[in-house]
Amino acid sequence: MSKVSRLILVLGDQLDLKSAALEDFNEEHDAVWMAEVAEESTKVWSTKARIAMFVTAMRHFREALSEKGWKVIYREMGEWPSFGDALRADLKKLKPGKLVMVLAGEWAVQREIEQVAEELEVPLEVREDGHFLCTRAEFAEHAEGRKQLRMEFFYREMRQRTGVLMEDGKPAGGQWNFDHDNRGSFDKHGPGLRVPPQRFKPDAITQEVIAMVNARFAKHPGALEEFDWPVTAREAKAALRDFIEHRLAEFGQYQDAMWTQEPWLYHSRLSAAMNLKLLDPREVLAAAEKAWRDGKAPLAAVEGFVRQILGWREYVRGIYWHLMPEYLERNAMHAHEPLPDFYWTGETEMNCLRDVITQTLRLGYAHHIQRLMVTGLFALLFGVDPRKVHEWYLAVYVDAVEWVELPNTLGMSQYGDGGVMGSKPYVASGKYIQRMSNYCSGCRYDPALSTGPKACPFTTLYWDYLLQHEPKLRQNQRMSMQLKNLARLDDRQRAAIHMHAKRVRETNLKTP
Ligand SMILES: Cc1cc2nc3c(=O)[nH]c(=O)nc-3n(C[C@H](O)[C@H](O)[C@H](O)COP(=O)(O)OP(=O)(O)OC[C@H]3O[C@@H](n4cnc5c(N)ncnc54)[C@H](O)[C@@H]3O)c2cc1C
Ligand code: SF4
User: Fold this and answer.
1) pLDDT number for residue 510
2) What average pLDDT score do residues 388-403 get?
3) Do both 82 and 151 map to the same domain?
4) What angle do CA 453, 457, 460 make, to 5 degrees?
5) Spatial separation of the C-alpha atoms in residues 395 and 372, rounded to whole Å
6) Are residues 400 and 278 in the same domain?
7) pLDDT band, residue 512 (cuts 50/70/90)
8) Per-residue confidence (pLDDT) for residue 66, from 0 to 100
9) How high is the pLDDT of residue 139?
10) Confidence of residue 147 (pLDDT cuts 50, 70, 90)
């Protein structure tokens, strides 16, 4: 290999030809460096779908770079056990004058790269990731002097700054928020017939990756028979068009709804494409806004969707970089239970959890309310250590990258950050799941019952959670309604709930 003047590091979630790291690439003197390493799939016990998603998207990106005639140094799975080892070996061999990259999606990975560069005395240039609409410095400015970092205020600033869904400096339609239009559930007939989301049939590269993952990671959870994710920039654009045409108009109304054996409903399925940087969020926002302006989707649906991307997605990234690495250690509710084994198999009699976990392992996907109000809610009520919950979420979803997964899991879902992400814990009984889905009608438990053989474990654990944390929750104004209902329980009912909750914990921790 001829001498390399700059080595451009491209990580598995940085697959963007327009990346700031590649903007001044010199074909004659520079080379791109990429590595697949088993460590990334084993440090959390990743599903086969997550492993395949990253590896096949990386190999397609290698093709795209090679087609441009760019020099690519690519380490395939098995060449090196760890990322640090692979990088160290190539830096020693290639002796580049400089290492260039955009900020990694995980604090520890960024730290490791910095350490290797320091150790080998290779200058490292870390560039701002232009994929995001809010830089770390802009977020820090937003956070400066604020006691609370509420998403809503951040989102309004982002709307003003970018002009998305704005008219004459005011929010389109005269309001920032259409949440009250966006909480629908289905009637007993369910979601009905819809155009299924576009599938992306595995090509030769993906088929090879699937075979490799099935052989090398055979013991990892999940399956690859239905793998159909967009894995190139071209496919990601097609997936966006498909969503805008067939699902966006209904997105808002049913964004919180769930239905047995219906993983997609009106969701976009774009998170993995965006997180791997195959798709630019600006393009997604522009396409959604255009659909509204062209009269193809109502404002409430489009605002609901824009809020997820311009609001939540940018906000959680801001929180992550603002509070790491200390954020990872937080455990505000002192939760220390292990994660029940059924999270890795789906083998439980609780219908909602069985459906969501089985789907998750099969596809590497669950939509937001399934993550927040089924798997997340159960872990929260059960008292699982948030670190263990975080590791599970990071392992199972095709879109899981730490900057987005951690604040959602530890903060929003588990209230482990003590109120940075949410003003109160997202706690609810089985009745919430009954209202938003048809899971309960096929379940052996009854969401109205908190004790007795048919008691729904969610409902039992919900009351037990309020009882356990009552003194702390009393300090939170937003919990007052829930605590008022708790006050109606007499001592005998409280003791019965507590006993039953103990049994639920013991039963669910038993290994089969
Ligand atoms: C416990 C938990 C863990 C999560 N882990 C991840 C994760 O690892 N990666 C990830 O991308 N999202 C994560 N989310 C957020 C959200 O559930 C997913 O983005 C969404 O389900 C992806 O499916 P979709 O593309 O069909 O989204 P849609 O419902 O169609 O939403 C559109 C887009 O908005 C963005 N978005 C929506 N909600 C959020 C949110 N809360 N935070 C950030 N972006 C959001 C996503 O980019 C998504 O593609 C998590 C949520 C919870 C509660
Ligand atoms: S009854 Fe409880 S466990 Fe069963 S599906 Fe409903 S919420 Fe889930």
Assistant:
1) 72
2) 98
3) no
4) 90
5) 16
6) no
7) very low
8) 96
9) 97
10) confident
Q: By the 8 A CB rule, do 398 and 206 touch?
A: no
Question: CA 222, CA 230: separation in Å to the nearest integer?
Answer: 19
The amino acid present at 434, given as its one-letter code, is Q
Ligand nearest to the CA of 356: 2
Q: Give the CATH number for residue 440.
A: 1.10.579.10
**Residue 268 counted as domain residue:** yes
Summarize pLDDT for 102-114 with one digit per residue, the tens: 999 999 999 999 9
Asked if residue 114 and residue 141 are part of one domain, the reply reads no
Q: Looking at the structure, tell me whether residues 316 and 367 fall in a common domain.
A: no
Assigned domain for 69 exists = yes
> What pLDDT, in 10s, does the model give residues 121-146?
999 999 999 999 999 999 999 999 88
Q: For the residues 471-495, what does the mean pLDDT come to?
A: 95
Domain finish residue from 73, 106, 127: 127
Residue nearest to atom 2 of ligand 2 (CA): 456
**Domain termination site, one of 104, 127, 150:** 127
Provide DSSP, 123-147.
-EEEE--TTSSS-HHHHHHHHTT-S
Per-residue pLDDT, averaged over 39-53, amounts to 94
Q: What is the DSSP-derived secondary structure letter of residue 443?
A: -
Kindly state whether residues 55 and 171 are assigned to the same domain.
no
Query: What total number of domains does the chain contain?
Result: 3
237 in a structural domain: no
CB of 455 closer than 6 angstroms to any ligand 2 atom? no
CATH of the domain at 97: 3.40.50.620
Ligand 2: centre distance to CA 444 (Å): 8
Rounded distance from Cα 320 to ligand 2 centre (Å): 33
Which distant-in-sequence residues (6+ apart) come within 8 Å of 256 by Cβ?
A: 182, 183, 184, 185, 368, 369, 436
Cα(137)–Cα(145) distance, integer angstroms: 14
Structural domain that includes position 447: 341-509
Decide if 328 is inside a domain: no
**3-class secondary-structure state, position 389:** helix
Is the domain of 289 the same as that of 381? no
Q: How many angstroms is it from 458 CA to the middle of ligand 1?
A: 23
Is the pLDDT assigned to residue 203 strictly greater than 50? Answer: yes
Residue 325, preceding bond cis, omega within 30 degrees?
A: yes
Rounded-to-integer distance, Cα 223 and Cα 225, Å? 6
